[in-house]
Task: inverse folding
């Protein structure tokens, strides 16, 4: 923007002309003149009609300003300024670009004749969703409130659960064109200062043109963008954010996104839903153990079946081996190709069920799986055990609470299938070793991604996997973050 156009001019007419130039070819920019008792224009109000609450604007704000001008004995400048200060938090805008930003952010800007600065305040009037139950993180027991696309509402949901002055927030504006408001939240007495400094540095480094969802922020600030595993936790639940803040984590909320980011994150965080905290500890631990089993099945199920039936038949009990061989008789395709075809078909059905309207998506996925599976078996393309293995693998992946982690396991399943087809159990063990090695090498904001076993913090390490009775749990996990995921334990 030209520097001559950047400053607010004392002339209202010039400011309106400059704003028209800035918002050229935009039919939504509007100006409301403010006239005094003599019918002379002494101020003007600029706004975008689709963003503000026009009913309140025309029925309350404009009449109140005119009423103040007719009734006051003070100067017109002071009268208009005093009137708009009664509407809420008013910001002084010395530059024209800041006035344009206020207008684009669902605010109104008042230009007063003779003043070298404008005044603006927020007056949002666009529609927003009501607070509803989270779609991706449903609970049987526990709070049922979820974030929406409005940042102020989301902040209120968190602050309502943590009624303490130690809950701090810092504001950022990201996106050159979108100018998206982003807030980071943390508990002053719980947060790790090194983690907080790292989060702030990465937030300040964001250079994106448009930010419409925090997924873009997540990809920018994560440690290893090429890793298939998510390194920042994503949640739609304000109760989970409140719990994470008490564990010393930092929450990142952005306007327009119905979820929050939590950092740093460990691999175990993606395996435990918030509902675990609301159930009896022994039942929660049973479910945690079950998820570990289904995690293994989801990742290695088809590949292990291929390795055993192709290279290591002697490892299968004889009656079961005979069943596999009899079902395989007459199948023209090799086992790994059977698995690949069925996995691709399952992924196609899953994607179709997501993209179709909700009313018919679930029916299509169920009916499609039954029809395709039965047709494939009857036509002799795949064997019945393979259909069972792929079905069990797909069902096991649904037990993973984190959608991003489940996607990662689905992607890794395909290379493991080919490795098992070429090298058997040896290659499968090597693939498992590579995955574990990769998990151990990952970090989240300087913290180890896979919790390390440390005798000094054994209780916190155990709590990463096992839910203790509530009287024996740590009230705060600031020390836990230091013990299980320290910066490579420089003090050693």
Result:
């Amino acid at each position: 923007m030209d520097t001559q156009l950047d400053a607010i001019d004392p002339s209202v007419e010039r400011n309106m002309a400059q704003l028209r130039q800035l918002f050229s070819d935009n039919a939504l920019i509007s100006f409301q003149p403010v006239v005094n008792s003599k019918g002379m224009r002494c101020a003007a109000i600029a706004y975008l009609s689709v963003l503000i609450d026009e009913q309140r604007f025309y029925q309350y704000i404009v009449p109140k300003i005119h009423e103040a001008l007719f009734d006051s004995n003070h100067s017109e400048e002071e009268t208009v300024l005093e009137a708009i200060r009664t509407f809420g938090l008013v910001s002084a805008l010395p530059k024209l670009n800041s006035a344009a930003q206020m207008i684009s952010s669902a605010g109104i800007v008042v230009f007063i004749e003779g003043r070298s600065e404008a005044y603006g305040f927020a007056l949002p009037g666009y529609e927003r969703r009501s607070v509803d139950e989270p779609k991706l993180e449903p609970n049987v027991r526990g709070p049922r409130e979820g974030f929406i696309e409005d940042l102020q509402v989301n902040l209120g949901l968190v602050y309502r659960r943590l009624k303490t002055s130690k809950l701090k927030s810092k504001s950022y504006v990201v996106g050159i064109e979108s100018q998206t408001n982003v807030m980071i939240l943390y508990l002053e007495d719980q947060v790790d200062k090194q983690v907080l400094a790292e989060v702030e540095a990465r937030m300040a480094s964001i250079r994106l043109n448009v930010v419409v969802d925090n997924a873009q922020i997540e990809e920018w600030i994560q440690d290893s963008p090429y890793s298939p595993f998510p390194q920042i936790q994503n949640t739609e639940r304000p109760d989970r954010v409140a719990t994470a803040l008490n564990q010393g984590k930092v929450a990142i909320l952005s306007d327009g996104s119905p979820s929050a980011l939590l950092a740093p994150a460990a691999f175990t965080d993606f395996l435990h839903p918030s509902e675990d905290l609301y159930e009896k500890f022994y039942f929660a631990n049973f479910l945690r153990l079950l998820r570990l089993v289904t995690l293994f099945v989801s990742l290695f199920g088809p590949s292990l079946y291929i390795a055993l039936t192709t290279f290591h038949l002697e490892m299968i009990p004889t009656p079961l081996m005979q069943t596999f061989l009899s079902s395989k008789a007459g199948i023209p395709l090799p086992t790994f190709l059977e698995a690949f075809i069925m996995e691709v078909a399952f992924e196609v059905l899953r994607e179709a069920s997501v993209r179709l309207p909700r009313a018919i998506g679930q029916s299509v996925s169920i009916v499609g799986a039954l029809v395709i599976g039965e047709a494939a078996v009857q036509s002799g393309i795949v064997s019945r055990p393979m259909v069972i293995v792929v079905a069990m693998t797909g069902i096991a992946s649904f037990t993973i609470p984190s959608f991003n982690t489940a996607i990662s396991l689905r992607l890794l399943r395909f290379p493991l299938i080919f490795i098992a087809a070429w090298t058997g159990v040896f290659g499968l063990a090597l693939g498992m070793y590579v995955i574990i090695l990769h998990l151990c090498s990952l970090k989240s904001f300087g913290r180890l991604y896979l919790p390390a076993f440390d005798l000094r913090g054994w209780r916190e390490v155990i709590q990463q996997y096992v839910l203790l009775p509530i009287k024996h749990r740590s009230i705060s996990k600031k020390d836990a973050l230091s013990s299980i995921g320290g910066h490579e334990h420089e003090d050693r």
Notes: The first strand starts at residue 29 and ends at 35. The chain has four domains: 3-122, 151-265, 279-447, 451-484. Confidence is low (pLDDT under 50) at residues 1-5, 479-484, 487-492.
